[in-house]
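Pilot study result, target chain (638 residues):
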Amino acid sequence: MSATLLAALWAHLAACVLLMGSCCFLLLAGCPRTPTAFRWDERIAAWCRLLVLAAIFSGVVWLLARTAVFENRPDAALEARAVWHVVLDTWPGLVWLARHGLLIVLGAFMAVGPDVTERRNWIAVRGEGLLLASLALALGSASSHAAALSPGTAQAVASDVAHLLGTGLWLGGLLPLALLLWLASRDAGADARPYAVLAARRFSRVALIAMLVLVASGVLNALAQVESVAALMGTTHGRLLLAKLVVLVPILALAVVNRTRILPAVAAPRMMRRLAAFVAVEAGLALFLLVLAAAMTLTTPARHAPPTWPLPFRLSPDVVLDVPAIRWRVLIGTQLVVGGFIALLVSMLIRRRAKVLAGAVALVVFGVGIGLPPIIVSAYPTSYRRPLLTYHAGSIASGAAVYREHCAGCHGSTGVGAPPLPDLRSAAIARRHAGELFWLVTHGVPRRGMPPFDGRLAETQRWDVINYIRALGAAESAKTFGGEVEPDRAWLVAPDFTVAVGPLAPTALRDYRGRRMVLLVLYTLPSSRARMSELARMYDVLWVTGVEVVAVPAHATRDAIGELGAAPPILFPVVTDGAADVVTTYRMLAPGPHAELLIDRQGYVRAIWSAGSDAIQAQVEKLNAEKSPPPFPDDHVH
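Predicted structure:
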């Protein structure tokens, strides 16, 4: 069924693109005045009528195949109820209905055969055909991947519409141009040669603009749907995009040859035939390009698909931070490459450029050879995989239990094992991709005696361990924290947590993002009683300044609020369920029987107090005064 769906989608897309481009090319060529040009015009008009029928038929086949996929039953394609459900109750179905309504109107208009003997009527008929064909093609963006992008839906859809219309203007006009040039190149079509030359030159200008629109909109679409090199190289959607770029290279080469070498001499019959052949080849490659575009439409966008990295290495500029000895090598290599590119630009401005060009190439090659190898590190198929679990206190606490049972014997209870094992708290480990750690935990490191754990631990347990290792590094970094907020320096991500307060619905730390700061208080009774009373008296002031207090007892019970006493009244949340995971996780960052962590509105830890602070309001004012808050942290560690 997937092959049928792809074939139907390609046929429908190709018919719509060729229909729009043919209508546009008729207007570009102008009203015919010679017998050969009239015959060509009538042939293209008949071709357009066939394209409308092909677009409607292939669209119906696509709908039936889509229904079978949607219902997950091949026989659903022949059930009227299932088909109407897809058409009327899904957004792609409604878009399909609107597009095919336009195609039916266009087909009926063309079937009537309006009079085009007068130039004014000819322009009106061809213009109406172009308008309806363009609308039908552009409406496809309403149910594309771009329409599902959020935020930025309008921009993504506009870019996709520009891409489709640019494709129609360029690709759709290639076959009519090739036919016109072939007819005019024969002796019997000599009367149409001036008409063909003018049409070819007009189309060349329009195609150049269309190609620029295609490139610009394609880049925007790629940035929106792919986002990263890993997604480009490691997903089906990304690899199809790379294949499109590979096919685009010979198309652009042909276009350049046609525009610069053949078009200036196209008046000669021999050059007309050559240009017709080259344009036909370009059209064939472009139609194959549509196959790849249709396949991309049926795959998950690269930004949402887990990438499988295909290379055994990747570039890691962060290496220079861990190994100071190679900084100079990378710096020198970078400067040589920059110098080489400058020399390359200079070589384009002088006459005797051979020696300068050779020197520029040598500088670039030498610079790459010096500066690139130090930042090449080993990579694995899962290097860029998004973690299955979020950076959550529940996952970290579970990972701590798994670590104690399976990992602490070699790596030490604190992450510091005997040499040559790495310090799991180090910055070098913290900068490694989570997917790389997952691969190492899953497959082991035999040369260092580390066994594989894919048969011992479930996938979720392995991700739990990785979250715990990240928390070990964060705990080591948190030792530099004090009670003073460093303005505009947010970097320590606060692990998310889910808690319940009495009978209320569970809430999460991330629910406060963008709304309020959180003062997370880890307390132990009776030693923390005086501080909790003080916070209760301050709560009104803290709330007004944008702070919510969340109190987590070291040993939570259902009567945790009552244990704090009735006076002064405790009005802030006191966790009664889920406290153990929060205490386990956050005591890694702030050990001791009592600790307070100030978390800003974005979700970063900004200050830590071990026994309370008399200057809470001053620190809160610093956060309120920040002009450029950082973006929300990703819920998954990378």
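One observation from the pilot: The mean pLDDT is 88. A full batch analysis is planned for the follow-on phase.
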